[in-house]
Write a structure and sequence with these properties.
binds zinc ion, 4-stranded antiparallel beta sheet, 341 residues, 3 helices
């Protein structure tokens, strides 16, 4: 997901109205309302209200139904109460005509998918495919709006804001995905980062941890946190790596990198003075520090400090690995070959 801070709405309740609301389009209007409620509204703190015919008072988002390309005339809250701020197409006789050629449920899918996409723009999200170059022709469309802004999530091929999201057409050929209107996993994270979660809790903006599985898969979000001075280890020995943070008062662990911070131990020692390894081979990561005369270890990061060796080397001079393959980590030091004492 991509967007620009200046375009995002500064409120969570957004009113919607129809510039005209003939009875003959009641069903289509209900599809649009339902699609928005099942996507942007369901997964975020946003609520969309009204959905009646526009009065002289207007609304935040004013929808005009017309047989032209679905679009918003500006991004995000720049369409606030602008007449015909969003165009949606219900009939597809002149534009995207295939949407009216595969039956009613296909037309419904087109209407829902267009609505979710255009509401994405109305929320300030720009085209995800603007982020990349050299796209196949079926999705390398005119760029709409800014490609700038900031990247709210990693690049997302499955985003409702991405023209390159593809599907197999009924005739077997590949085409842009026109009728899948559900948000992708990263769309959900993106809207939550910008507008908050459905329960009103807030995801801190800008701070996330990412993991590329095996180093070959795309980065995916592991968790949200502004904390970045972190250690890694398996502190409970369950085989999953945990994320460690020292805040100057205590040590915290997020188990598997997925849980909330849980207190491991009270300690004022900061991460720059610590090293991590399994020094006793019990499969739990231990914490090592030096006070300039000795090395100490806290078993599993929980026990009191235990003096393990006399050494003037500081923790930051050391690296940890298992050099003899006995399942216990060893301490490595390189002196740069400048002098030997
Ligand atoms: Zn668009």
């Amino acid at each position: 997901m991509t967007g620009d801070d200046s375009d995002f709405w500064k409120k969570a309740r957004i009113s919607v109205c129809w510039e005209s609301a003939p009875a003959s389009q009641q069903m289509e209007r209900a599809w649009v309302k339902d699609a928005i409620e099942q996507t942007w509204q369901k997964y975020s703190n946003l609520s969309f209200t009204g959905w009646r015919r526009c009065t002289s008072k207007g609304a935040n988002i004013r929808i005009k139904v017309k047989d032209i390309g679905a679009k918003v005339i500006r991004f995000g809250d720049n369409i606030d109460n602008v007449r015909d701020g969003m165009f949606l197409n219900f009939t597809f006789k002149r534009w995207a005509t295939f949407c009216s050629q595969y039956g009613e449920s296909y037309r419904e899918g087109c209407i829902r998918a267009n609505a979710v996409h255009e509401f994405g723009h109305a929320l300030g999200f720009s085209h995800e495919h603007n982020r990349v170059e050299g796209l196949p022709s079926f999705c390398d469309q005119e760029t709409q709006g800014t490609s700038g802004g900031y990247y709210i999530t990693p690049y997302d091929l499955a985003s409702v804001m991405n023209y390159c999201r593809t599907a197999i057409k009924p005739d077997g050929t590949q085409e842009r995905q026109y009728i899948d209107w559900q948000l992708s996993a990263l769309d959900i994270i993106g809207v939550q980062k910008v507008y908050g979660r459905a329960d009103g809790s807030w995801i801190p903006r800008g701070g996330s941890w990412y993991v590329s599985s095996g180093g070959t898969e795309p980065l995916s979000i592991l968790n949200f946190s502004g904390r970045s001075a972190l250690g890694l280890g398996d502190f409970n020995g369950d085989g999953y790596s945990d994320v460690f943070h020292a805040n100057g008062q205590r040590w915290d662990v997020s188990y598997g990198g997925r849980t909330r911070w849980k207190r491991l131990k009270g300690s004022k020692i900061k991460i720059s003075s610590l090293r991590f390894g399994d020094f006793n081979g019990d499969k739990k990561t231990d914490v090592l520090r030096s006070n300039g005369t000795h090395w100490y270890v806290s078993w599993g990061g929980k026990s009191k400090w235990k003096k393990i060796r006399k050494s003037a080397l500081e923790a930051k001079q050391l690296q940890i690995a298992d050099f003899n393959g006995d399942g216990k980590d060893d301490v490595f030091y390189a002196n740069g070959n400048i002098f030997v004492d």
